[in-house]
Amino acid sequence: MPDFDVAVVGAGPAGSATALWLARAGRRVLLLERSRFDHPRVGESLSPDVNPLLRDLGVTLPGTATPSYGIRSYWGGAASSSHLFSPHGTGWYVDRAAFDRSLASAAVEAGAVLRTGVACVGVTRAAAWELRLAGRGRVRARVLVDATGRAARIGCRLDAERIPFDRLVAVTGFVPAADPPGYGLVETVPAGWWYSAPAGPGQLVVMLLTDADLARSHRLSTVERWRGELGPETAARLGPAAAVSAVGVAGAQGAADGAVGTAGAGLVSGLRVVSAVSQRLHRPHPGADPRRAPWIAVGDAALAVDPITGNGVAGALRSAKAAADTVLALLSGDASEASAAYEAALDRECTTYLHQRLEYYAAEDRWPAAPFWHRRTSPTP
């Protein structure tokens, strides 16, 4: 008999919530996480939509969470628009590592087994899954869940392929702010768009969303070039931390993919380049062979969307419930139909998202010839 009914690889919000739902249903669940939740994680803003989802999960926010009173947006013109109200109450700014840890702990309280600091380095598929764990031996499970984020590490080892729709990255830094206002700020520029928001006591997270090739060719992972692309509202929010002569994106040259800028004056830490690519994990034959152990992907591993949709953590928690329901069906022997229905629902969600993304970006028409904007408003990405 396998050691576990389900092995979930990745303890981000989607993975931990999936594990929690399955453990609550009485299944033997293993939750694996490569980290120990000890490194900063990008994505500190939770929309109000998370509130009912967390209530359903029985999870409370970490005590360090602070209210988010909405988004002030400069998109499509110099005038701002604000999104402040929701029937679900206020949103939240959280320490993402602490938030992810709290979700994983809730899964453990429900009965899941959590192993942190453990990498899954290989899988073997037969009637059950065998997972090889770096320095930790092997475990067996009846169903495997890929919750490894945009990397989709498990799915890409199997029969799946990532289909990207763009090349989006977030060039991210943390900037001191004595008393950061309780709202997020979004502002468009020719090279992409800026997002800034409180990120714990005394600092803001500030990121430029642009394309990977533009970040590389225009050296936007260096502090000076990054600051040089600041929009006026974002620069005003940063104050002295933004004091640098403007450098237009058209005049910058060369940098390596994923390069990290050195820390400059006003930055708490050096810049990080984080993937924010939109993509769908395509499975050509989901559940085709009932004699072989089934698997599914959840969260960003299954479908990753542009941060401008504001669907981040709330979307991950919603996908976890659908994934858990599918896994329960798989464990009941309904492999082919359950997998096909799950993938079909994801395909419909992806189609809706792509139309939504086109509408978002079409609302900004000031720089139609700029590569970033042209790619998002033309018929093909």
Automatic annotation (TrEMBL):
Domain called FAD-binding: residue spans: 4-168
A matching Pfam family: FAD_binding_3
Domain of life: Bacteria
GO molecular function: FAD binding
UniProt record similarity statement: Belongs to the flavin-dependent halogenase family. Bacterial tryptophan halogenase subfamily.
Protein name: Dehydrogenase (Flavoprotein)
